Amino acid sequence: MKIYELGPAPSARRVSIFLAEIGIDVERQQVDIRGGENLSETFRAISLNGQIPVLELDDGTTICESVAICRYFDEAFPTEQSLFGNSALEKAQIEMWQRLVELRGLLVAMQAFRNISGIYQDRENCITAWGEESRQRLVDFLPTLEKQLSKTTYVAGDSFSIADITAVILCDFMKNLEIHIDENLPNLQRWYQLVSARPSVKS
Length: 203
Known about the structure:
Blueprint: E1 2-5, H1 10-22, E2 27-30, H2 41-44, E3 54-56, E4 62-64, H3 66-76, H4 88-117, H5 128-149, H6 162-173, H7 186-196, H8 199-202
Parallel strand pairs: 1-2
Antiparallel strand pairs: 1-3, 3-4
Helix pairs in contact: 1-3, 1-6, 4-5, 4-6, 5-7
């Protein structure tokens, strides 16, 4: 197996943290996104969305989208406590929070960053006003996490899950937008310190 990635990218980090949590090591090949390597015909032949990460199995089958890759490893290498949940309720709650954090948090943060910074203006239209609006939407979402974490140890309950992985990546990435977890978000602050200390996240 091989994973095509750009190590520091949020989507690649999600897979790396997940694999570290379940103790799986996979060969990596770096892809130069800034240079447009992911736009080449060669790369698009293995990646349906032209993005990283992409998992290539030994038989040549490829899987793109970071959560889909994590789901593959969750099923192929089961652990006692799945990061996607074990019981029907756990699975539903983790899926719910994973979707909320991704769609209202991480995706919005990336929209804000790309539009404000213009980092990929050579290949997409960047609208600064939309970036600023997206940044504010992210700020408005953080109290939702704060309220949830006033009731639970982790984002989706009492166990660390894929929802926490997505959330910690969000919290690390939003520093690029000068959004920080301060004393106004004490429960989010407590959680962030807790999960940031995990070996999988620190690495």
